[in-house]
Amino acid sequence: MFRRFLATAAKGSAGPTIEAADIVIIGGGPAGLSLASAVKASPVLQGLKCTLVEGGKLVESLEKFYESPPQFIDKRVVSITPASMDFFKQIGSWDYVKKDRTETYDNIHTYDGVSGAKMEFDSPELATMIENINIQSSLLQRVKQLNNENPDNPLTILDSTKVVDITEDPQNEWPILKLDNGNSIRTRLLVGCDGYNSPARKFAKIESRGWAYNRWGNVATCKYKDNEFRFPTGWQRFLPTGTLAFLPLPNNWCSLVWAVPPEISAIVGKLSDEQFTYMLNAAAKLTPDELTYLYEIADKEPENLIEEIKWRLGLFNKTLTTVEQKENFPLEIDYIVPNSRAKFPLKLSNADSYVEERVALVGDAAHTTNPLAGQGLNMGQADVKSLVETLENSCKRGLDIGTKIALEPYWAERAIPNHVMLGIVDKIHKIYSTDFAPIVWARSLGVNVLNSLPFVKDFIVGEISHKGK
Ligand SMILES: Cc1cc2nc3c(=O)[nH]c(=O)nc-3n(C[C@H](O)[C@H](O)[C@H](O)COP(=O)(O)OP(=O)(O)OC[C@H]3O[C@@H](n4cnc5c(N)ncnc54)[C@H](O)[C@@H]3O)c2cc1C
User: Which residues surround ligand 1 with Cβ inside 6 Å?
Assistant: First the structure.
């Protein structure tokens, strides 16, 4: 059946230099490589001719990581849910993950930077921290294995190859992708796994709506002071300027995500690694007013910053006299990995639809969210799973997989869960972005009530970790 599909495609082609495919995926990020692996691992879909096009130098960097992983954990790390991990197992890529570079944790400790109200979320294997590159490299290895098993119809990866234009074949309305190497591909189905600025979404004329959070997410790989053992725990402090999170990595390392407005990001971005480290320890413990003062020092007299923080933290630490009080805060950061600092603009976006005639959108091409709940990549994995099931059903029913009617079950399945998740994360961001007393009182009361209702917390944990889905 699939060969017949392609024969039809070739007959209608506009010229001999245009390749034809059943599925072209733009983007070799976590979503694109997951989709490629899932299609080729599917007994129903593996006969389709499938090409992945990626603008970056993908294969070389992922092979290098797989063959000789670097000493330090990369700065791009994500928290994946048990549901995402199960999906990687289902498509066969989890076997290729470098497990010694991942950390599974059972507990997230959140605390309000204004009122101090705290909430703990516990569940066995709540989430797992893993480098984006570890996910991508495992997926590439799985694709290579599947290609070896299916040498007549392997997945083609065109990396270091940018899609520069997408037009519509006038004969049958299939997308034709123009590549920067001069070649073109025409495809029955174009899947945009091409991130926030998705060229596929633009080609399909699908509107994406949302807003910027006016926050930068500052990331780094950090080492806790080795003076005390703690079970791997995620720490999250809600400050009016944004969320500060330390997420656990193996051997007492952790991954930082620190959301701050652009003006603060510019100030902390100029600090040395040592000054930045002190500022992190201050942000984990001191009051928002003290932090505002410290940002001023960091801007105007950075040479005095470390002494000022040492003095303030010294006073604060003296107030923590019992083990229980100390355990209400993360361990202090000792140092950060050189060159591990980076920053990303944070935004919410959601496409009006994830499907159009001959086009489907997946992952960040369809939606982006504030990383405070660690859901962006996880939502993308759920998209991939749903799209693959939709394509399988279409194939079994003999439908043309690129038609909008065949793709609509995917959109129907993913629209509401993604919309709900984007809304929840947005509300959390907004509720915590203020130090307005009545709101602080209300949110702290809410948190204290929630913290005393285990069944409600279990429900939230279930939703966030997608357990049971
Ligand atoms: C600070 C931060 C922390 C985060 N933490 C978490 C977390 O804990 N948990 C979680 O689930 N998510 C998290 N996320 C979100 C997560 O990183 C993203 O949702 C995920 O990486 C998106 O993957 P993707 O494959 O959809 O898109 P991308 O990774 O953006 O991949 C898109 C790919 O398309 C390629 N491309 C684009 N245009 C073209 C073109 N014209 N031609 C060829 N190729 C093209 C790009 O080169 C790129 O490789 C976080 C995000 C940030 C910023």
Answer: 26-32, 53-56, 78-79, 132, 162-163, 193-195, 199, 217, 219, 257, 344, 363-364, 371, 374-378, 380
